[in-house]
Amino acid sequence: MPLNHHDQVNLLKDILTNHQTDCCGSVSECEQLERLVKSLMVNNNLDSNVKPILQEIYNYSQNGKYSADLDEHILSNQTNLSSWVDDIGQFS
């Protein structure tokens, strides 16, 4: 069953929040973030102001996926994670 826009945004926020609170994550979570962002980027109902944020999240997930130390990557992005969760919450 495909996820609707609202479900995708909630899942995106959940993964980012987990990364923020746990300061750790997995490559599969980074891959899931990429898939969610790609799906949301092609959604015409999405507020255009959120697209730059989604691009930042996509870059974060790409860098995390290929990072030698994913936990350190997540730790170094704590401020971004907090900001993204707050920003996405305003547009969901």
UniProtKB/TrEMBL annotation:
Annotated source species: Mesobacillus foraminis
One Pfam family hit: YtzH
Superkingdom assignment: Bacteria
Name of the protein described by the UniProt record: YtzH-like protein
